[in-house]
Amino acid sequence: MVIWSRPVRLSAGLAASVAAALAAGFALAQQGHADAAQADHPGKAVYDQFCAGCHNAPEAGSRAAPVASLRRMSAQTLTTVLTAGVMKPIGDQLTREQLRAVVTYLAPAEAPVGTAWLDQNMCPAERRTVDLKPRPAQVGFGVDLENTRRMSAAQAGLTTRDLANLEVAWTFAMPRTSGLRGQGVVVGNTLFYPAGQANHILALDTQTGCVKWATPTPSQVRNSLAYGQLGKGGPMGLVGGDAAGNLVAFDAKTGKLLWRADPRHDKTAPLSGSPLIHEGRIIVPISGSDVGAAMRPAYECCKGHGAVAAVDAANGKVLWTWHTMEDAKPLGRKNSQGAAAYGPSGAPVWSSPAVDVRRGVVFASTGENTSPPATGTSDAIVSIDLKSGRQNWVFQALANDVWNMSCPTGSPTPSNGRPLGANCYFAAEGSVLRDHDFGAGPVVFRGKGGKDVILGGQKSGDVWALDPATGKVLWRQTFGQGTALGGVHWGIATDGVRVFAPISDPNVPKDKSAAGMHAVDVRTGKVAWQWRAAPDCTGARAKIAICGNRYGLSAAPLVIDGAVVAGSLDGRVWVFDAATGRVLAMHDTIATAYKPVNGVAGQGGSIDAAGLFAGDGLLFVNSGYGSFGQAAGNVLVAYRPKK
User: Fold this and answer.
1) Weakest-pLDDT range from 108-122, 161-175, 338-352
2) Taking the mean position of all CA atoms in its chain, how far away is CA 411?
């Protein structure tokens, strides 16, 4: 059982399983078994058989959430992951009794959270109005349609000088949460926020953190929200992908759930990247789950592939789908455990796409193949016609990168002590085995005189500049050797002159690491400046288990005015001068004590994925990301200029 922070659905039929699991947990607690980790708990044997191999040592290559993070999740989250989510292949092997046992072994044996974490922090009546007349500070993950992650001082309500002198304004903690991955949207004085593992969409007052409205979600929404008009004459809405692979649309004014629709061609694929709304259409990236499911020797690897879909913003009806490849077929062979092999597969679209309105084009990026034969669309950036979904061109950065999580990286001979998995049967057949996909979405850079550029950041540590008309390489810069978790992991940003590439390089020896921030002049392709990250395990930070080897920059950065803001895996927020790279400020979100406004205990952690956003004069930081062996946390931190 490998549980990522990926969305899943809990159907009405499965609600009984959740209730039963909770009831069983309460019964155990009443019998004096408050500590569900006891050696004789019936769920321990199930966990040891199906889960421990990955979750007890996530840094050994599985990338799974550590068991400590699982224990912070609710019974509902655990049950839905196993019955309708990315770990359904494992859940399908369990009897109902085994499912209940492992859930009660992991989930806290305590009363349901309820709504006290919201009710006790509702705004007074005079502050509950949601005013949608102001221009939004951002429309989605990339800030704008072009994915630049660039905000003017007016958009953010913050200047470079402000960013050099911040203080905590308020914090808000999510219950039963080990990681925060979704970015919010700010419109006027309202912050719309996806409290994913807490199963709510929230409208918060930007200045105080009080709750204007809170809508429970059928399944957790954990990617970043998109904001825009839901069809001609429709309301202004919020759209996100939920744990069942559905798009869910909410009325931004009231929080009412308007529609829920499944845009996927493959019903096992998660919606990992964030959607975009443009002129009555929603552009949806579709990823895949085979990469993790292939760890199971009996799994028939692999059948899924990535895609980009356009749906009607009024109702979620699919208008077109661009596929990264044809459907998988039997390869006429079996793995060492007798499971049939399928291919081609993979090339999931993990990240938010960019929309170039001037050209009528969607730009998207893809991941590696998960089974052979290798395709020309993996580890690639692709240009797609916005109106029809027709492919214009594909640029492949790395060919023959066939890999899944049953494989080592870089060599068919395991170098980290892990045996070669049954579904890595192709390891000695020519694959480069790098897992150097594009976890970051493409950026449309507007150059002077119409000399536009498409920018891409890859887990290999490469930053690419492409001709938007042809996909031809204009220049390339490489920072470090790359790793399966970055290199460039979740995103890049631009200030209109430079592109900023955060490098993660977790567990890379310091003398070989490029962890830090790297700025490249887009016009020339030359390095403008570089800043190297370094660990800090002094004082209160000495207790942070990851501080010595996970201190790079993995989350997508954010440009505000003349500054670049970045979050590190060890929980620090860095503010740089965009022109020079000079550090203007640093804020530690892990070694800081918080008193969240909603009364829930809060703890900071790693900053990853969509960790940073801003609006209405505040910088917002998601502190906590328990996946990949990182530091769990549950706090949304709001910073303001010091008074």
Assistant:
1) 108-122
2) 28
CA-wise closest residue to 20 among 103, 105, 118? 103
The pTM for the full model equals 0.90
Question: What's the CA gap between 276 and 591, in Å, rounded?
Answer: 35
User: What's residue 449's pLDDT?
Assistant: 80
At residue 126 the predicted structure's pLDDT band, cuts being 50, 70 and 90, is very high
Query: Residue type at 378?
Result: S
State how far the Cα of 522 lies from the Cα of 519, in Å rounded to an integer: 9
CA-based radius of gyration for the chain: 23
Tens digits of residue pLDDT in 81-98 = 777 566 766 777 788 888
Whole-number pLDDT of residue 418: 61
Q: Give CA torsion, residues 392, 397, 400, 401, to 10 deg.
A: -120
Dihedral of alpha carbons 593, 599, 605, 606, sign: negative
Indicate the angle between helix axes 96-106 and 75-84, nearest 10 degrees: 140
Query: How many helices and strands (H and E) does the chain possess?
Result: 11, 37
CB 488 within 8 A of CB 463: yes
DSSP string spanning 282-344?
A: EEEEE--SHHHHTTSTTS-----B-EEEEEETTT--EEEEEESSPPPEEEEEE-TTSPEEEES
Peptide bond into 53 cis (omega under 30): no
pLDDT value of residue 36: 40
Please, which residues have CB within 8 angstroms of residue 520's CB and are 6 or more apart in sequence?
463, 477, 498, 499, 501, 526, 527, 528
CA-CA distance, 379 to 416, in Å (whole number)? 24
**Residue 319 CB neighbours (<10 A):** 15
What is d(CA 640, CA 88) in angstroms, rounded to the nearest whole number?
A: 43
Q: How far is CA 45 from CA 37, 101, 480, 637, in A?
A: 11, 9, 42, 39
Per-residue pLDDT band for 58 (boundaries 50, 70, 90) equals: low
pLDDT of 21 above 50 = no
